[in-house]
Every structure is written in C-alpha cells, then in structure tokens.
Design a protein that fits this description.
This protein is of the alpha/beta class and 307 residues long. The protein has 10 helices and 13 strands. Strands 3-2-1-4-5-6-11 form a 7-stranded parallel beta sheet, with helices on both faces. The two termini are 36 Å apart. The structure holds nicotinamide-adenine-dinucleotide. Nicotinamide-adenine-dinucleotide (NAD) binds next to helix 1, strand 2, helix 4, strand 5 and strand 7.
C-alpha cells in the first residue's frame, strides 16, 4: 500500500514509517522539522520537509496514497497554554487543510493521532471512549476538535476516518525538549546522570504508559481494519502507574541512587488516567505486549542517548 505520514520525522511518526517500510509498503513522510529528526527515517522512506498547512505540497504528496496517518502536531501541554493560537493553527487548521487536500485528490482513509489528554480530570476510570471529555489545555482541545473535524467532514466527503486516542507513549527516540520533557525518558536520563528526579505534586497521580512498538502495532492495524469508520479508539496499556511507582522502576532498572524530590507547590496534572482498551481489542485485535518495566529496559537499550 501507499502511505503518507504527516509528522513522520517525530517520535511516533518515524517508528511507524520504519515499520511500514519494513513490511514492504511505499511510505512518504512530511514534517516541518520543528522538532522532528529526519535521520530517524530509513533510507527507503520518501521524506519531504514542509508544513501540514501547505496544501499545494499536500496535493503532490497525496497522489496515489491509500491511507494517510496524520501525526503532525505541536505536542506540549504547557506550551499550548502560552500559545493557544499556534496550537489551533497547526493542530486544528492543519487537520482541516489535510482533509481538504485529501478530498481534492480523492484519498479515502485517514488515521488521526489523537490523545488521551482529551479526557482531562474524570472520576470514572477506566476511561471509555463514550464519556464526555473534559479537556484541560488548548492542546487537549485542539486534539478533540481535530477528532470532530475528521469525523464530521470525513462523513460528508466519504473519507473513512479513525481517531486513535493515544495515552502516554514512551520509548527510544522520544523528543526531549529542555522544558517539560516526557517523564519516562526524562527520568531515565536523570537517573543515569545522577541528577535529581523531580515529580510534580505528591507523585500519586497515575498515567497509562504504552511502549512505542505497541502504539505502532495499533496504528498499523487501523489502516486496514474493517468497520471502524468514524470511531475514536483508546490506545493505552490498560494499566495505571503512579509517578512514584514509575520513579521506583526507573531507579531499580538503572541501579541509580539519584535524589527524588516531590514538589507539592506544582500541580501534578490530572489525578488518574487508565484507558479502557476493550474497543481497541475488539476492533483492532490490539493487545499491548510490553510491560512498563520491559519497555523502560528496551528504551535504555535502544536509545543511543542513554549509552
Ligand atoms: P513529536 O513532536 O515527536 O512528533 C510530531 C512531529 O510533527 C514532529 O516531528 C514535528 O516536527 C512535526 N510537526 C509539528 N508541526 C508541524 C507542521 N506544522 N507541519 C509538519 N510537521 C509538523 O510527537 P509524537 O510524540 O511523535 O506525537 C505524534 C502525534 O501523536 C502527535 O499528533 C501527538 O499529539 C500524538 N500523541 C502522542 C502521544 C505521546 O505520548 N507521544 C500521546 C498522544 C497523542
């Protein structure tokens, strides 16, 4: 099959692109390289640098494409609070631009990378796709809006759509920005350097961590699975882990004696996140196969930054 991946040079995009190429598919990648790294892509992936809002570029790249994976986005919650307009322009506007270009060219299916962040603070756990979302940041709102856009205009224009609400993905190659880096690789790096591991809040807040290879399996399945048009589907491990337990695992695995500080002055974000993954199991035959402890070990082993 022919695929276009937007955000292809990013953490999830590059892992997906390389997997599809290994399976023998033709893969094109688009990324503006605002954070992405094209070196992460295998040589047989046809990479183009560009913006997801650039429709003429999209028209060219979409020729003969069977399925689009739409991952290009700004992904930082704190940054989205400072610059909501950028998040709206790229995450929402970019999605609409892509859908218009798909309609113009006649591409028939899109898989959107949405986020578990759309749920926000909800008491009832595990989180089911059917609950009313309670987004708490412009990032989360932008992802929810993108879901509605793909589903609504997809059904009007006969484009099949599926939105995958990915929870806390982690693994080798994850982008580590200087402020607010994703916790799993950040703690690994701090532990190896003997630096302090700082947790926001009391460390009792939970997240649903999912190893990158499991996310990629779900994304691959979503390109061909039948009867998923218009659905939103959670992609998580179905297991909730507190920040405290994550830190304990990181220290065990690395053998580090690094200091741990709980900063009660700063908010730890939502209290609980645990995905209900029964829909993914039913529709995508999705079964997460890598436990957090093993995924952290694999991250250490496979990411050159941790050598
Ligand atoms: P990432 O930042 O590594 O990847 C995003 C990519 O998009 C980057 O390579 C960036 O350069 C590119 N990009 C940004 N703006 C662009 C633009 N205007 N035009 C073209 N490319 C642009 O992040 P990731 O973790 O790989 O996330 C990929 C997708 O999955 C995102 O849509 C994100 O919202 C979603 N997601 C990720 C997670 C996670 O835990 N990693 C969880 C939920 C959802």
């Amino acid at each position: 099959m022919n695929f276009l991946i937007t955000g292809a040079a990013g953490f999830l995009g590059s892992s997906l692109a390389n997997q599809l190429a290994r399976e023998g598919h033709q893969v094109r990648g688009l990324d503006d390289l605002s954070t992405g790294n094209p070196q992460a892509l295998a040589p047989d992936i046809h990479f183009t640098r560009g913006d997801v809002n650039d429709r003429p570029k999209l028209w060219t790249l979409l020729q003969d494409v069977d399925v689009v994976y739409h991952l290009a986005a700004r992904v930082s919650v704190p940054e989205s609070i400072l610059y909501p307009r950028d998040y709206n322009d790229i995450n929402v506007g970019g999605t609409v631009a892509l859908m218009e270009a798909m309609r113009d060219v006649g591409v028939k299916r899109v898989v959107l990378a949405s986020s578990g962040a759309i749920y926000g603070e909800l008491i009832e756990q595990p989180l089911k796709e059917t609950v009313i979302a309670n987004p708490r940041s412009p990032y989360a709102v932008s992802k929810l809006a993108a879901e509605y856009y793909v589903r609504t205009i997809g059904s009007l224009w006969n484009i099949e759509t599926v939105s995958l609400r990915i929870f806390n993905a982690y693994g080798p190659g994850q982008h580590l920005p200087p402020s607010n880096p994703p916790v799993a690789p950040h703690y690994l790096r701090q532990a190896l350097r003997g630096g302090t591991l700082v947790a926001h809040g009391d460390g009792l807040q939970t997240r649903d961590y999912i190893y990158v290879d499991d996310v990629v399996s779900a994304m691959v399945a979503a390109s061909t699975a039948p009867n998923i048009n218009g659905l939103v589907i959670n992609i998580g491990s179905g297991v909730e882990t507190s920040i405290k337990d994550l830190i304990r695992l990181v220290l065990d695995i690395t053998g580090s004696k690094a200091n741990v500080v709980y900063n009660s002055q700063s908010s730890g974000g939502v209290s609980r996140m645990k995905a209900d993954i029964s829909l993914a199991q039913e529709k995508l035959r999705f079964t997460p196969s890598i436990k957090l402890e093993d995924g952290l070990r694999l991250t250490l082993k496979r990411d050159a930054r941790f050598k």
